[in-house]
Amino acid sequence: MAISYRDAKVVSNEEISKDIYKLVVEDESEINAGQFYMLKVNGQTFLPRPISICEKSENKLTFLYAVVGTGTKEFTKLRENDEISLTGPLGNGFDLKKDYGKVALVSGGIGTAPMFELAKRLRTKNKNQKIDLYAGFRDDVYLVDDFNKYVNKVNVSTNTGKHGHKGFITELLNVEEYDTVLCCGPEVMMKKVVEMCKEKNVSIYVSMEKHMACGVGACLVCTCKTKDGHKRTCKDGPVFDGYYVEL
């Protein structure tokens, strides 16, 4: 399957926390909250990296990425007016046609990034909807202040206690206060949140994060377990009903 990449001009690329970068590029595409792009630096990155959309504003796309290997380290060298190759938007995002009722956005680490565009769109759809953010981090906190104009309340935890509650974000979350939980982060965290929601019969949707090679369902690298067998995270997800996917 041929995958078409295009070059996008870099607007900015800055480190906002240790090894966490905010990359803004020019792109005219229409996107849905929860989708992702495959990014690579031509002539350097052997395999593209899947990066969730953090924000879409007019003709600009914002990504947050963590420097975890050689590919993302190459991204840190990008400067204004450089070009990065990308393809997207890919995958199925959150279904904003649904009435989620009272919503908890639950995230861990870099999984907070896709929650931002989601919060914006939920607030645009319903200015009176209850939307609370629960964001957990290891030590340093990033992005959460930007949520204040879109959510009713921001709850933060860190493993070290440097910011907010010391411990896990799930210790602050009472799922029975919400109609729907929308979640993205480490699989162990999402597994716990799904279990909490099942116990209280609360709707839960999770955005899965997997290693990917193509992003369009051809390579089968990113499969995840569901009640109907293995599904492709990139093509069938990354957003799944938490009662359907097996974490």
What does it look like?
- This protein folds into two domains: 6-90, Elongation Factor Tu (Ef-tu), domain 3, CATH 2.40.30.10; 103-241, Rossmann fold (3-Layer(aba) Sandwich), CATH 3.40.50.
- With 247 residues, the protein is α/β, with parallel strands linked by helices.
- The chain has helices spanning 70-75, 113-125, 187-200, 233-236; strands spanning 6-17, 20-26, 36-40, 49-57, 60-66, 83-90, 103-108, 131-137, 153-158, 165-166, 180-184, 203-207, 223-226, 229-232, 239-241.
- α2 (113-125) links the parallel β7 (103-108) and β8 (131-137).
- The protein has a seven-stranded mixed sheet with strand order 10-9-8-7-11-12-15, sandwiched between helices. The chain has a six-stranded antiparallel barrel with strand order 1-2-5-4-3-6.
